[in-house]
């Protein structure tokens, strides 16, 4: 009886664990090259691996756009009928815990990334992405964008200990690193 319950449990897991379908329709999968434009965060906080190559899949559902790097999770943003894209993400990380007993404020950093640019679409025989955002035979040829990262101490933080002048990782806070992205359709 125990073995049969285990088999039924395993079958229930298999049936209930179907992967979710990818959102919208595929605009294209791109081989991308990201190149550094400037970085005032410093080479330790934002290592200068330049240029960086990776793959990006862009999908569309109406005006919602989806961006996934190297088959990762999709990040939702926007894409319009002209191919203009906009994606943003933000995360908060505590790099130094506060200690009220000794008056230490601590340091929490907000990292934000914004990608904006264009997917160049060439219409086949006068068709492309229609007003509803549906694929009507468009051929995607190129991707150009900017990728901007910012690192900002959260309100009430004291992040001086994280500055390189004090043995930390950042040359300055807040700081930013700016990149260009170029890509060609790979699939």
Largest sheet: 8 strands, antiparallel, barrel
Distance, first to last CA: 50 Å
Q: From N to C, what is the helix and strand string?
A: HEEEEEEEE
Q: What are the low-pLDDT stretches, counting only 5+ consecutive residues below 50?
A: 1-16, 125-131
Give the neighbour order of strands across the main sheet: 1-2-3-4-5-6-7-8
General shape: elongated
Radius of gyration: 22 Å
Q: What is the strand content?
A: over 45%
Helix-strand layout with pairing:
Layout: H1 2-16, E1 25-39, E2 52-61, E3 64-69, E4 75-79, E5 84-96, E6 107-122, E7 139-153, E8 175-185
Antiparallel strand pairs: 1-2, 1-8, 2-3, 3-4, 4-5, 5-6, 6-7, 7-8
Could you describe the 3D structure shown?
8% of the residues lie in helices and 49% in strands. The chain is built from one helix and eight strands, in the order H-E-E-E-E-E-E-E-E. The chain has one domain. An eight-stranded antiparallel barrel has the order 1-2-3-4-5-6-7-8. It is elongated. It has 187 residues and is mainly beta. The longest helix is centred in the first third of the chain and has 15 residues.
Quick summary:
This protein has one helix and eight strands; from the N terminus they run H-E-E-E-E-E-E-E-E. It is mainly β and 187 residues long.
Descriptive terms for the model:
1 helix, 187 residues, elongated, single chain, mainly beta, 8 strands
